[in-house]
Amino acid sequence: MEVKVTASKNYSVVIKDDISSFNSYVKDLKGDKVAIITDSNVDALYGGLLDKAFSNKKVSEYVIKAGEDSKNANNYLQILNFLAKNEFKRNDTIVAFGGGVVGDLAGFVAGTYMRGINLIMIPTTILSMVDSSVGGKTAINLDSGKNLAGVFYQPSLVYIAVDFLKTLPKREVLSGMGEVIKYYFIGDTITYDDIVKGATKDLIRKCVQIKADIVNRDEKESGERKLLNLGHTVGHAIEKASNYFISHGECVLLGLKKAIVISKAVNGLTEENAKKAEEILALSNSKLSISFDKNELINYLKNDKKGKGNKVDFILLNNNLKSEIVTLDIEKVYELI
Ligand SMILES: NC(=O)c1ccc[n+]([C@@H]2O[C@H](COP(=O)([O-])OP(=O)(O)OC[C@H]3O[C@@H](n4cnc5c(N)ncnc54)[C@H](O)[C@@H]3O)[C@@H](O)[C@H]2O)c1
Ligand SMILES: [Zn+2]
Fold first, then answer.
1. Ranges of residues in the chain whose predicted pLDDT is under 70
2. Hey, whose CA ends up nearest to atom 44 of ligand 1?
3. What is the C-alpha to C-alpha distance for residues 251 and 257, in angstroms, rounded to an integer?
């Protein structure tokens, strides 16, 4: 299975069962060096797995501590220095081998080291397979918020091997399914039964295709790409307020719940259809519900990079259970949540 991205760079998202055919995709790689950036968990499980594919290169590995905390400026600078010290040139390659944290950080490094070095993504979580590895958004977190520094930088290849998911902890499966469920409300191809079956190759392909189609039309998020932020405006605020204790995808699910509430109030979503949307959310089996400080959330929304003064672009559901962009007063959001 393959999905094509045709943005500022054209590349394939290859979707396979395992890593066995990866070498055939990288055999003609330019340069003589490869840096594999990964995290401590992925390294413990799969360290050394890619070495054979790069047997004709000088391979170095950079392992960050697993977890969202690692998506920071310190690691970013350290990896840049690591590349410089090892004399990486622009035609050498960075491989982001791990989940969204590794992908976002390594992607930002790749996009900025010497103004851009070749990047290959090998996502190993559901979330990174269906979302973060595709589309070229890279970022690190700053003290004031998530993903505040980053660049758009497309990889040259995304290689998905669904077998990696066999070792994924339950919490991370749940987190990934949050993002998958988001796609149900964005594209037309995902069915209720698909979600019941979980993260199969076919479901991953459908998600990637929905994302690729949107990125192909609006790479830099001037319009349509904002739809992919469904559940994320409130979701990010909760994520930050919980100090990243709650996983990204679960925060998206909580954000989706709020989007349903707001859609009922201001976007014509009927009670009956809101129930249907909630049934889809329930398939995630997330039992989470949290209370949070409204003022903290509003402050966060005001600082959000998608905010415009007292207004915020919110992604709501219409009565066909599809997402659309609605600009709302932040005060109104305060009232409704
Ligand atoms: N760039 C984008 O477009 C985009 C989109 C969505 C999310 N994100 C970002 O992605 C990040 C979340 O990504 P994530 O959910 O993949 O988190 P993650 O990278 O932290 O991975 C989750 C956990 O799973 C472990 N892990 C990874 N692969 C594994 C495997 N195969 N087996 C066992 N354990 C494994 C990791 O070590 C980590 O502990 C957030 O920082 C979010 O902001 C970015
Ligand atoms: Zn997300």
1. 291-292, 304-308
2. 132
3. 10
